[in-house]
Give the backbone structure.
Amino acid sequence: MNIINLDETHSTNQYLQELLQNGELEEGTCVRAGFQTAGRGQQGNFWESKEGKNLTFSIVIYPDFLSIIEQFIISQIVSLAIKEVLDHYSEDILVKWPNDIYWKDKKIAGILIENSLIGNQIQHSIIGIGLNVNQETFLSDAPNPVSLKQITNRDFDLDALLKEILNTIFKFYLKLIQGGAGEIRKQYLNCLYRRVGFHSYSDENGIFRAKIEDVQDNGRLCLLTEAGEKRLYYFKEVSHI
Ligand code: BTN
């Protein structure tokens, strides 16, 4: 396992991106930082993580066998891997579409995947993960953060947890390479947050109640409204309320 440990960097996703500009890295290379000065979240948000308390790391893979329209499967394997590891330590870990990891109604981990494309294919994929581990209080206005320590009342060894997560991601990646995409998609659907029953959502037209019907291979969420209407959403087009 090739792990580059940094005390501090701007963002591990960006650091890995810069390394890749200077030449190819071994697939699976991981950059991990004790502190990020400009940790990036989804939608241009800042990722809060107290120095030395959590896991903030990025991995590079070269899934050149995937086309652009299949890229969502990377989010699925990473989400499933983190869930599988966290399941060893707590109940009620779920994946909130598209790729947030939740404990009950709170967010314990976030994933930021940045793909570089050549034509229709993925040249490299940088998978950035922020997992709240030993942090006890959160300062930012990020919605509902929670850490493993807050859930379990104990501290975790960050090195051991990182290795467990990396091994599990590579296990799912191997499964994908070996033709397991169908099974991965089924497993992902089964562990979604609010998978069962009707819940409140909001889109550009307002608030409505719907249940999750499916997640398409391209990542689109398919909701079924109470009136029986199917609605399809790409990321950021709909939110839970
Ligand atoms: C989210 O907003 O849910 C995604 C958060 C992703 C944060 C991680 S921390 C390690 C990696 N480096 C970054 O700058 N961001 C990701």
